């Protein structure tokens, strides 16, 4: 009996020791590699995450009040500063590899700039990218083009709206702008010039005008407001459509429900508001799949009209095929 008791004690102690050892494992902290893949007709789409940043959204949303923003966030179990996704989208047409936006590179610190690593984890190398389509020239969308002044995408042509390119490369616009790094401030021009320079020097920037097809099934659509030459890209294959909207929405929890809410770093907030409502309405009516840079990763879903605003329906999860 005593022997049995001793044996039980020994067993209990070893179990305790085991569980203590498990509890001592360090927190892993990071999530899975930031890519999400699905087929759109005959095209393969990979959403790539560049990382996240905590943004003081109650401070930069305009046409509302900080209190209102905090209240709506709280309804969704969120708060400001809000951890915000930075997404880009890679399209393999079968003939070409096209990247829409590039993330921030090393401009905003180590929480961003993960796009290239996530692209590699997803099975593609930056050197395989044939073309890069830019939605607009804010640093969190073009910063990933270069690393330490060198072209990160050594074989790619960069396509950008001519009006957008001219606006941000204009020394005269920069001279007029106030100091700072947000929106239409001097730092945004300076960054855009520095980032684009190696591609311009190598003859790899090909501007385009207006709404047009850049590649079979991929059209650029102008949606000026957030920046003067802001564009979205409609991707269509075998009757399926995906609209990569760029920055017509920054805070999903606020601006779907109330698309009249704007951001302080819009170039032209009333125009940005108008474009947001127009695009949301069209995308909801035509049941087009929606992809956005700052909607929680992978930033993909559908919109439905709802009361005075819109309801966001995230894409159903797929493990891929
Ligand atoms: Zn952005």
From TrEMBL:
Keyword Signal: yes
InterPro entries found in the cross-reference section: MBL_superfamily_lactonases, Metallo-B-lactamas, RibonucZ/Hydroxyglut_hydro
Keyword Cytoplasm: no
Keywords noted in UniProt: Hydrolase, Metal-binding, Signal, Zinc
Single GO term (MF): hydrolase activity
CDD domains: OPHC2-like_MBL-fold
Coiled coil region boundaries: none
Signal peptide per UniProt: 1-23
Residues in Metallo-beta-lactamase domain copies: 85-294
Taxonomic superkingdom: Bacteria
Family, similarity comment: Belongs to the metallo-beta-lactamase superfamily.
PANTHER family per record: QUORUM-QUENCHING LACTONASE YTNP-RELATED, QUORUM-QUENCHING LACTONASE YTNP-RELATED-RELATED
Protein name: Metallo-beta-lactamase domain-containing protein
Organism of this sequence: Ralstonia holmesii
């Amino acid at each position: 009996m005593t022997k049995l008791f001793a044996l039980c004690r020994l067993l209990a102690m070893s179990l305790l020791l085991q569980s203590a050892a498990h509890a001592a494992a360090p927190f892993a902290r990071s999530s899975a590699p930031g890519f999400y893949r699905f087929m759109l007709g005959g095209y393969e789409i990979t959403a790539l995450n560049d990382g996240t940043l905590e943004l003081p959204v109650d401070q930069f949303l305009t046409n509302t009040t900080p209190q209102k923003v905090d209240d709506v966030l709280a309804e969704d179990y969120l708060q400001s500063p809000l951890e915000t996704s930075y997404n880009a989208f890679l399209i393999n047409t079968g003939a070409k590899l096209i990247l829409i936006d590039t993330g921030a590179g090393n401009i905003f610190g180590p929480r961003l700039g993960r796009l290239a690593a996530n692209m590699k984890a997803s099975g593609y190398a930056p050197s395989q990218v044939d073309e890069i389509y830019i939605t607009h020239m804010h640093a969190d969308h073009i910063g990933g083009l270069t690393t330490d002044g060198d072209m990160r995408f050594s074989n790619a042509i960069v396509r950008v709206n001519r009006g957008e390119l001219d606006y941000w490369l204009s020394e005269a616009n920069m001279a007029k702008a106030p100091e700072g790094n947000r929106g239409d401030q001097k730092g945004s021009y300076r960054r855009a010039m520095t980032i684009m320079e190696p591609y311009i020097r190598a003859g790899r920037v090909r501007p385009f005008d207006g709404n047009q097809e850049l590649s079979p099934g991929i059209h650029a659509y102008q949606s000026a407001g957030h920046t003067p030459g802001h564009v979205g890209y409609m991707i269509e294959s075998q009757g399926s459509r995906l609209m990569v909207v760029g920055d017509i929405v920054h805070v999903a929890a606020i601006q779907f429900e109330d698309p009249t809410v704007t951001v302080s770093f819009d170039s032209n907030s009333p125009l940005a508001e108008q474009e947001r409502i127009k695009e949301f309405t069209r995308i909801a009516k035509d049941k087009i799949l929606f992809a956005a840079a700052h909607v929680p990763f992978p930033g993909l879903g559908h919109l439905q009209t709802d009361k005075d605003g819109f309801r966001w329906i995230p894409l159903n999860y797929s493990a891929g095929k």
